[in-house]
Specification:
single chain, 244 residues, mainly alpha, 2 domains, globular
């Protein structure tokens, strides 16, 4: 078993007891109580902190006359995702833009960091895509209830025709639950397969051919982050739309 990062060992030394106690409160018992924090979780923490620092720096150095390179990148991301959100979600998309932007950037960086030697992409571990899928599931359902009310949102599952609502309601519930599986498995499977293919070809052809697969890894990373974001927008649109 490969040795964990030094920073991971430090985090476990400092916080293992607290994390074990917190997990015990919700009935979870880690396989290794002395090291509940994994390298994947450490990498996720640093990616999240890096994104926070990026946006904080952009915010502190905003300039209309002389925008810096970081501001230009942030504006390009904002405008691109904003345009996509407006097309899919429609009116009122602005309140969801921060969430879908964070989802996209976090998944993209988690995917691409696997290109750094010695670091595995966190999304290669099934629990990470599942966690992102659960967060998305809770988020869009929360806004569905908030926008339409409890009764209105539950009626949303029954369909427009009352006399077959008894059939549509369980089907819609299963369909919504399956979204968790769809979001998590799609991301996990593609990243796992991409890393595996790249590693195999690096071991066989260590010089030229793997560069092609590195480019393919970048492409797959971008596509999977984009698909996750677009599906999140679609689910938000479906949850918050009103019948006319």
């Amino acid at each position: 078993m490969p040795e964990s990062f030094a920073i991971t060992r430090l985090l476990n030394h400092l916080f293992a007891g607290s994390i074990d106690a917190l997990l015990a409160l919700i009935g979870i018992h880690p396989a290794n109580p002395t090291a509940p924090i994994s390298d994947n979780y450490t990498v996720e923490i640093f990616i999240a902190l890096g994104l926070i620092v990026f946006f904080a720096v952009v915010r502190m150095n905003l300039s209309v006359e002389k925008p810096g390179s970081m501001q230009q990148v942030a504006e390009m991301i904002h405008e691109g995702i904003g345009g996509q959100s407006e097309q899919i979600i429609g009116h009122g998309f602005e309140r969801f833009q921060a969430f879908v932007t964070c989802i996209f950037l976090f998944i993209l960086v988690c995917n691409l960091i696997g290109l750094v030697p010695g670091i595995e992409a966190p999304t290669k571990a099934g629990v990470v895509p599942l966690g992102l899928a659960i967060a998305t599931f809770v988020y869009y359902n929360f806004y569905g209830f908030k926008e339409q009310g409890v009764i209105g949102y539950i009626k949303h599952f029954a369909g427009p025709v009352w006399w077959i609502s008894w059939l549509l309601f369980p089907v819609e519930l299963i369909s919504h639950a399956a979204r968790l599986l769809s979001l998590s498995v799609r991301l996990w499977a593609n990243m796992f397969a991409g890393d595996l293919v790249t590693m195999v070809f690096f071991s066989i052809f260590p010089i030229a051919l793997p560069v092609v697969f590195l480019g393919l890894h970048v492409f797959v990373s971008l596509v999977q982050a984009f698909l996750f974001m677009v599906l999140t927008m679609i689910y938000l649109a479906m949850a918050t739309q009103h019948e006319h």
